[in-house]
Design brief:
- The complex is a heterodimer of chains A (about 110) and B (about 120).
- Chain A has about 110 residues and is mainly beta.
- Chain A is built from no helices and 11 strands.
- In chain A, the strands form 2 sheets. In chain A, strands 2, 4, 5, 9, 10 and 11 form a 6-stranded mixed beta sheet that branches. A 5-stranded antiparallel beta sheet of chain A has the order 1-3-8-7-6, with no helix packed on it.
- In chain A, a hairpin with a 2-residue loop joins strand 6 (about 55-60) and strand 7.
- Chain B is mainly beta.
- Chain B contains no helices and 11 strands.
- The chains are: A mainly beta (about 110), B mainly beta (about 120).
- The interface of A and B includes residues 41 and 99 of A.
Chain lengths: ~110, ~120
């Protein structure tokens, strides 16, 4: 069956360090992968999209990599701040039909002073 | 910045009652979606909607669920006879193009539905 897996354990890091979150998927070859941020009681907010032919994408302090051989995406936040504390979700169109985004379980990040 | 708005923010209902959750997508968007998130679980796809038709739906979206775009601005999700397991946060989302076009989703803040 098709799966999108993210580390279910919360990630605690110190302010200023780089946070690295992982998204693994199985049994399909997505054309792209998206990352969202979700704060408690709020809807997901789009952060970055990376295409299958892109190895890396950056936006300010965020960096995403996409390894289609390993079927894995890594999401990095450099110089992390307490305001970065949230749950981060990866999402893929696993049906290829173009109208259904499937989300991973998310990884909760806590940045401590 | 334009945003997706959802009402009400909280809805409490008795089991077996009908509920309608309302959404106003971003005005120039053409694709509309409902997702739900049970407490502590992942965001799950329910249905996508384009050109007044359902494009895709999940196995969760059974005959008890329906969607409608009653006018040019609103998009609604109706649950005909609510069950305890329908308790969740329901998110509406919209996009200008389908997600298959590498398009991101814009989510509302959600409606927390509690079925007693």
């Amino acid at each position: 069956s098709q799966k999108i897996e993210q580390n279910s354990e919360a990630l605690n890091i110190q302010e200023g360090k780089t946070a690295t979150l992982t998204c693994n998927y199985t049994n399909y070859s997505p054309a792209y992968l998206q990352w969202y941020r979700q704060d408690p009681g709020r809807g997901p907010v789009f952060l970055l999209l990376i295409r299958e032919n892109e190895k890396e994408k950056r936006k300010e302090r965020l960096k995403v990599t996409f390894d289609t051989t390993l079927k894995q995406s890594l999401f990095h936040i450099t110089a992390s701040q307490p305001a970065d504390s949230a749950t981060y979700l990866c999402a893929l169109d696993i049906t290829g039909g173009g109208n259904k985004l499937t989300f991973g379980t998310g990884t909760q990040l806590k940045v401590e002073l | 910045e334009p945003e997706v708005t959802q009402t009400p923010s909280h809805q409490v209902t008795q089991m077996g009652q009908e509920v309608i959750l309302r959404c106003v997508p971003i005005s120039n968007h053409l694709y509309f979606y409902w997702y739900r998130q049970i407490l502590g679980q992942k965001v799950e796809f329910l249905v996508s909607f384009y050109n007044n038709e359902i494009s895709e739906k999940s196995e969760i979206f059974d005959d008890q669920f329906s969607v409608e775009r009653p006018d040019g601005s609103n998009f609604t999700l109706k649950i005909r006879s609510t069950k305890l397991e329908d308790s969740a946060m329901y998110f509406c989302a919209s996009s200008p193009l389908p997600t298959g076009s590498r398009e991101k989703l814009f989510f509302g803040s959600g409606t927390q539905l509690s079925v007693l």
